[in-house]
Amino acid sequence: MQAAGNLIQRSVMSLIPSLTEDAKGEHHCPICGRHVPKTQIELFGKVRIVQSRCQCEIDKLVYDKKQAEELINKKNIERKFDISELGQRFEECTFNTFRIRNGTGKAHRLAYDYARNFKHHQEELGLLLWGIPGNGKSHLAAAVAHEVKGNGSTVVFQTTAELLERIRNTFNKKEKETESEIMAALRDCDLLVLDDIGAEKITDWVLDVMFRIIDGRYRKKRPILYTSNFSPADLLIRFMPQQPTEEDKIKAQRIHDRIIGTSIIVENKASSYRREQAAQRFREMNGA
């Protein structure tokens, strides 16, 4: 509240062109057209006549500054997590290139609807796409990311293992980015995609970082799209270290509760597309 008050105060002062001489002429609000009378103030023992501003003008200036700050934050996030750097395979993963097969229908439909209606969804509502490896979950997640980003929202797409490694690398003093910068971007982006959650090896440090990422989004009511090779029930088991303490169990349960409680859960029931392609190549090579 204090920061907001300071911003409004600075905004008001910036609207006053000069306090060294009396304001002259009449002023009408350029937004609502209302005549705005002048005001007498005492400055350093001297009475001055200054031109007041309409609340419309003050509100617009505060709004414009907030928009500018959000744009700067958006550019910082996009620069730090540029999805165009994820490679050609990621770039080709769109809804147009997704091959609908037996078992993919529901997952494809929900992912497509989620992406197209992203800005109209309940703010914290995300997706959990799960199923066996290689059946198109990551392709659908990437397609959602492309669609949402194309509509002007900020998107961070990372495999969970790569993200944890990136955060771990900030411990190196030669690394330019800091953990706090990464965590801020993960917290503030419009959509965070955590690909292949549950595949990472769980340690106390991993459990703590994952909780901070997911809880940070939860507190700001920002959505996360997860993909996983594990069912929702099995995910809870995956979050447990080998010899969990009571604190570990509670933290794993809280992570799991936040994922389940804020996600549209859908199973991609298709078989592995990669295995189908490998089998097809084998048949072609052997003349079958």
Which key features would you list for this structure?
alpha/beta; 49% helix; 11 helices
Structure description:
This protein is α/β, with parallel strands linked by helices and 288 residues long. It has two domains: 2-61, no CATH class; 81-277, P-loop containing nucleotide triphosphate hydrolases (Rossmann fold). The chain contains eleven helices and seven strands. A five-stranded parallel β-sheet has the order 4-5-6-3-7, with helices on both faces. Helix 1 packs across helix 2. The longest helix has 26 residues, at 55-80. It is elongated and about 95 Å long.
Our estimate of the beta-strand percent is 5-15%
Compute the number of structural domains.
2
Number of strands: 7
CATH homologous superfamily (4th level) name of the largest domain: P-loop containing nucleotide triphosphate hydrolases
The CATH architecture designation of the largest domain is 3-Layer(aba) Sandwich
* Spans of at least 5 consecutive residues with low confidence: none
Query: How helix-rich are the residues, as a percent range?
Result: 40-55%
Quickly count the helices: 11
From the alpha carbons, calculate the radius of gyration and give it in angstroms: 26 Å
List SSEs in N-to-C order: HEEHHHEHEHHEHEHHEH
